[in-house]
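Just scan my protein:

——
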Amino acid sequence: MVSSTDNIHRLKSSMRLSSVAPATVTGRKVHELTNVDLAMKLHYIKGVYFFNSYAVEGLTVFDLKKPMVIHLLPLYFVAAGRIRRSETGRPFIMCNDGGVRIVEARCDETVDEWLAMAVEDDSTFDGLAYNQALGDTDLDFSPLVFIQFTWFKCGGMSVGISWANVLGDAFSASTFVNLWGKTMAGYVPHKSLHVPDWPAKPKLPLLVLPKVTPNALKRIDSVGDLWLTPLLEIWAKATDY
């Protein structure tokens, strides 16, 4: 049996990359990142959805992209932006319609065969959701969202998403995918889903706590201005992804 590593390598060699952007011009709006957002900048939310051949019969990549351009990304224009820095060096998202990166791949196995391999080695799923960290190439040009379409020998398909956690949590990513699915079915959203800036938090009296160092906690180094962990930097240099 061919190893999952070999299958993933063959899958990578078949990949084609493109981008989709909102149909309407956003106008270079700015989305400020909170401290919590920046604390999660090394994290990514990934998911893979499988569809049998009956569910995607006759479906083309154009059919998958069109609702994104017309309906989805005009609402989620922040997801199509790019990381920039203010004069103080603080990162923010410039909503410049840079686009969401689309990955197309073809697989020599059936959906069932791939899932059977995943039972033995769950890293098999890594090949179905594109893996590129922010700043892996150039931070200013790194997409915040990757969507990978993988077509299987049986006619089935998987949709893999890689969502930068600075955009929001797993619920945000799930809402993004679910709305895209609804637009694929003909639903036309009318209301903007862009979350407005939260009102400023009231200033509360400073609470002075005793200086106690918990024994169960260990202080770790701040990630500072890093967007890649040392492990990711080594991995990026060692692969052709």
The radius of gyration is 20 Å. The domain at 4-238 is CATH 3.30.559.10 (Chloramphenicol Acetyltransferase).
